[in-house]
TrEMBL record:
The keyword Cell division does not apply. This is Uncharacterized protein. It comes from Laccaria amethystina LaAM-08-1. Keywords: Signal. Residues 1-16 form the signal peptide. It comes from the Eukaryota.
Amino acid sequence: MSHKVFLGYRCKLVLAFDVGTTFSGISYSIFEQDEEPEVRGVTRFPADEHRNGKIPSVIYYDQQGNVRAVGAETTRECIYDTAQDKGWIKVEWFKLHLTPETDAAKLVKDKLPPLPLNKSIVDVLADFLRYLFQCASSYIKGAHVNGRDLWQSIEEDISFVLAHPNGWEGSQKFQMGQAAVLGGLIPDTKAGYARITFVTEGEASLHFAIQNGLPLKDMKEGDGIVVVDAGGGTIDVSAFSKDGTLGQDEFKEIGIAESHFHGSIFVSIHARAFLDNYLADSTFVNDLDHIVSCFDTTTKLRFRSDDGPEYIKFGFGRDNDYAHGIRFGQVKLDGSDVREFFRPSVKCIIDAIEEQWKSAHGNVTHVVLVGGFAANDWLYNEVHKAFKLFRLDIVRPENEVNKAVSDGAIFFYFKNSVQHPKSTAECLVLPFYASLDPEVPTKCSSRQITRLSGRIMIPKRFGTTVPSLRRMQPPKKDSKEVRLRFRYESKVEISSITMIFSRYHREPPFPQWPDLKNRTYQDFGSTTISLENARFQSLQRKISGQQGTYYQVDWEIILLLSLSEVMLDYGWVEDGVEKRYSELFITKIGSDLDGRTHIATISAPEYCLRFPEIFN
């Protein structure tokens, strides 16, 4: 695909970080005036002998919480002994601690290695992002002519693309934004957060596939594609179809993106459970951690068939236990046993593809497998066999599938090729609408209340619909403001006002009145305006009404919408002059703003604003 030439007056750097459960990678592109941008990868990391472009997502901390080794450094032969002697704490699979709280996630989190004491997931992620940023800086300085001068000219205005699993929403992105600040990627300002773009791993993988192996010329109008990003922790599955009305390489989303906890680490978990039982009465059971580690780096990667035996080489020629199939430092396993380690993950992938094929709003003709787990030949062959009769074309791009997300994130930044369906437009739940409205259903009239000002109102009717602006090009160049006016009344002086952000799922057209009983919306974040703060004290007015004295607050919510983010300002009028203040964007439910600037971007397309039920 030919990308638009960057027309700025100076160079601009875009860095994409793919923080995976087991391995992580960095891709980047330097936009230079009058030159077509090129996607490149960071291929040199400290202590990385393999130089395959990805490093382990592992950190060692000492007892004081200081970082002692990161990434490929953690695989050096001396690290294990040093860690044992000095009591260092190994942290791995930490990404999954960010996963939204669901029943499935709780089961997974119970199996995760614990975080160090006094370290939150944001702290750990910040340490890892800081390391990736340092690696990117060192690589670019050394890989480009006048690299140090180049870095110095662009380091204060770097744009970051952060990939995340399908299904991660406001809370997870807010924490990722916090980690980016703590890790030194961006300052804790509105301009700083504006330099971050989020992309789902499913969409990033689609953009990678468009560039690497997806037969666009053979695809007809309306042909669908299921993208499977098989990673270390999750299996992310998304469905899209080619839409010629939007452009030659444009797609629209035709299914509900899903994320399943069946990545490659679960193959290792099953292997560990088997070996723990198999070697229970062997002296080598004490080497279980090392044996499983060797399984991860050799046997798991090369497994192709269950017809013959498989071996895990972990020791030396003198290491033998014939009763347990250990000879010359190798554990001999039946291929059928190793197959069972893989079976739950492969079944999950096949079932997820079939579900997308059946439920997608389009004719699915292709399946694209990407991600480090997808490189396993047995997995690929099993998926291919499962859908042979379905006449689905199973594609595994020739280029490194383990770089699909980071490279695809850069391509996403160049050109968002996905049109999301109309059912994912944003909508806003306004607090009160007049009951005299002829469209008010009879069943809602019983909920009417009389405000202190004498206005007759009914709470919680859906109001203004804000269109999704995912397709604005180029990214962040333009934005659109949407203004919404609010009024709050109270008998007592108002100290703060809380707004709750909700997510709402329904096919269009959106109903005027939400189903409050069945709760068709889901809360996922909130923000609080503190009127005790000097900047907001002018908002409150004391009024003498028919029911006595009351307090009234008038203000505006100003939504700033761009390619993939929504930001938000407060606005009010003071002495005839408009004032504006930026103080959010998403905090966890129940948390209050403490006077610091809290801004984080959240991805479109579907978000709601509503008020808590507070009637005075």
